[in-house]
Amino acid sequence: MLLGGKSAFQGVVVWAGKRYFTTNRSTCKTVFSPCKHFSYSVVFRANRLRELDNRELSVSRSLHRCSFSSTCSISENLQVRTIPVLRDNYAYLLIDKRHKVAAAVDPVEPTKVTRAAEEEGVSLVAVLTTHKHWDHSGGNEELLEKYSSLKIFGSKYEIVPGTTHRVGQGDIFQFYSPSCLEVYVYCTPCHTRGHLLYFVKERDAIGSSAVLFSGDTLFIGGCGRFFEGDSNDMLQNIEQVIHRFPRNTFMFCGHEYTLKNLEFALQMEPHNQILKEKYDWAKKQLELGKCTVPSTLEEEFLYNPFLRYGEASIQQAVQQSEPAKVLAELRKRKDVF
Prior knowledge:
GO terms for molecular function: hydroxyacylglutathione hydrolase activity; metal ion binding. Belongs to the metallo-beta-lactamase superfamily. Glyoxalase II family. By secondary structure, the protein is an alpha+beta fold. It has a single domain, classed as 4-Layer Sandwich (Metallo-beta-lactamase, Chain A). It contains ten helices and 19 strands. It has helices spanning 6-9, 110-120, 134-137, 140-146, 231-240, 258-268, 273-287, 297-303, 312-318, 323-335, and strands at residues 12-15, 18-21, 29-32, 39-46, 68-73, 78-85, 89-96, 101-105, 123-128, 151-155, 165-167, 172-173, 181-187, 196-202, 211-215, 218-219, 222-223, 250-253, 295-296. Strands 3-4-5-6-7-8-9-10-11 form a nine-stranded mixed β-sheet, covered by helices on one side. The longest helix has 15 residues, at 273-287. The protein is globular.
């Protein structure tokens, strides 16, 4: 819970007993989670989206698009700038505030990403690519042409355009040296066989929150399609990877699919009050042109049906009880929803 509403406008937010610092004390606004368990401080900047003429993507479309970029301060030196790109994708700037450097996550529209870096006053030194699909990796080579010393991190398990540094399960690195941020790599094969998650935390900052760039493995209220895997793969990803992250981890996903995901979730659990509140909140955010990211893993376990396969309400909805079969049936129904 946020303690002391004025603190947000003074540049400090108290959340779950911890202090989070904002970058712009005069324009900071506080966004409350409808679940009433979490709140976080963000700084909104207008960032008009443009359409890509005559370009077709083999990804599903969201009904809403965000017209605002947002910057979220996670800890004193860890900050994330959300950048709406294409029709419903998200790129991000992972910012090391102490050293004024940043890594771009899935920067499919390089112009928007470099502009955001300039606005934040940071140097772009690296790229973190979650997976090979064009709408996530499509900007890598253009950025490498512009910044020849750029480090582009990509999966060692699949071909990712522009990759200069191939990484995989268990790798830990700093995208800039010296940096106060550490990046942990986890492989979650299912959406693609080489899909990566990047878990980032501030080094030596005991008790501070971390961030998870989940790409197309996990969305707010949903998960990615099982293009190159099955429900057994997804179950292992959840139980062996996602369950092990701290619950207060902030999740930044690859697409703005929130409203559609929550509509489906409501069909599965129509009496889930927290889910209803999250849906109402997300709808208002999108009507205002604002992003629905980030979420937290704690929140996701309260309303995301793909993380709630062990709940009786979900099992009854899909008429299955074995975890892998529950996930398979959820995915089957969501694919045609």
